[in-house]
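In this supplementary section we document a worked example of the pipeline. Step one takes a protein sequence of length 412 as its only input; no multiple sequence alignment statistics are reported here. Step two produces a three-dimensional model, which step three serialises into structure tokens for compact storage. The input and output of this example are shown verbatim.
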Amino acid sequence: MHGYEGSGNGFSLRFKEYLQVQDKPLQLLTLIEPIRWASGDSLEAFINQLLILNTNSDVEDNPNIAAVSITIRRVSNNELLANEALLRSVFTLLVDAHYQTRPSDVRQLLDVPYLHLWVAECASSRKVLGVLLAYKEGGFSDNHDDLLKHIVSGVRRPQGNLLSQSLANQSADTQWCRLKSLRVSRIAVAEPYRRQGVASDLLQALELFAVSEGCDFWGSSFGFEPRLFSFWQSHEALPVHLGLHRDKASGLRNLMVVKPLTDKLKLMSHDLHQQLLIDLPFWQAQYLSDMRPDSLMALSNSHSQSELEALEPGYDQMRIQRFINGELTYDKIFPSLYRMLVSTKSVLLQSEVAATVLAGEGANEVTNAYPVSQASLLLAPNWSALAEQFQLKGRRDVIASIKTELIQLSMD
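The serialised model returned by step three reads:
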């Protein structure tokens, strides 16, 4: 499980759960005898003890859940330092329930002052049944103006503040970093207690704490799948940003969600939510073609399409200019580029756009003055095909050519 070639824990957690949900025949085999060192090796035992790798859950396999009284409480770094049994229980649960838990996370639990931990415990036995980890983010002052400008422009990305910085860069709004927030990093629940409301109770405790601390929002970033998305939706969290590339660890695209706690954040998150849903169809054929239909539907239906408002005047021009300046990557401005180059009265799927452009007819008129940009609407992100078509060296030259054309477009 802890070998340096990869533990396979992600495969174990996700695929085993899939087989169980699908009611597929499942036989689990466990390998015990080591092949690179002797059984009972003293160095292995020492490392396992030191890094809490010898994890064994003490939660009952088949409890009488209805009879269990559960309490939720926040646990400090100092309490974990003073209570090794609690530390081991928390870390065991994280290893058992989450595929990206690493030994270095022990240090995070003990040392990081802006990391907050909530545990769900059995009231009688004090056994840990659930864990929620969250990082305090934001709260940048006016003294950080230069840093915030660099964050928005994508020049700098200081460690921490993952959600706040990403949304500030996405929206070109430093308020995402100035306002205080909590980012949910992990929620882990012991297997017998899953889908029993334990995770929801932990999240409610976090929200009460966030309000008491004067936070403007809480949020999270997670591997997007419909069932998990449904959980966040049930807590009124809005999707505000979708990663267009698969995460190497999960094989899923990351989705960022935000739960506003103040009126100001309701407006800010509403704007990003609407922009995401308006842009979504433009990405579908070329950037999201391998995404499951039920996932796309779940995201599209998170807001009534008939209630979507028009984008702010100048929105696309602003996005294009940020791309020219190097603040945004091509994939993020792809919808804006399409709307700039193709005049259309409705949001079309990319497959329909491609058919219209290739046929050279219809209500959509694509200018021929910007050939590389126009071709990228059909071929991106196949940069090698674009480079070959225009006799360029590679992706960098293609992007440079697109920027040159867009500078000319902005001057026309």
